[in-house]
Amino acid sequence: MDDEQLGVMKLSDALRKAQSVERDLIEIAPTANPPVCRIVDWGKFKYEMAKRDKEKKSVSHKLKEVKFRVNVHEHDYMTKLRHAEEFLDKGNKVKCQLQFRGREMAHQELGHALMQRIKQDLITMAQAEMEPRLMGRTINMTLSPLPAPKRKRRFEPPSEEYVEDTDHEAEHEEEPAPEPSKAGQTE
Asked: What pLDDT was estimated at residue 95?
């Protein structure tokens, strides 16, 4: 009886059928011609609808933060971009924050250039909700995710973990280094 279409029938016949299987008759699409109804357990149906609504609400309004520095190294930059991309892929907004320290304030153009690079690198996943703006010693930018079908990841996380070559280590192993003497201990 699961997801079985019974076709067009009279209301009285549909009610009788629902009662015979100890279920409820629920109108799914009242504006359709003829109206579409379903025979289901009302408690279970209500629970599933509440669960679905909760899932929609929980993801849509989170704001994740990714912090950068002006002199960020390329590897760190890529790692942070991957994290931002993952947050956007899950439907979260991302706040990119770039902090200046000390004399770095003298080169604000480097900070603005880095924020433009971030924006450009994440263009396939997000759009700028708030353009990069200097606030005190930080530049902030908020990115909101594109609609799910339009998102396209550019920076995939590494597919497998890095494993060191054990043969290479064995070639260079010689005698173990002597242990340092422990002052103040008696043997």
From this structure: 95
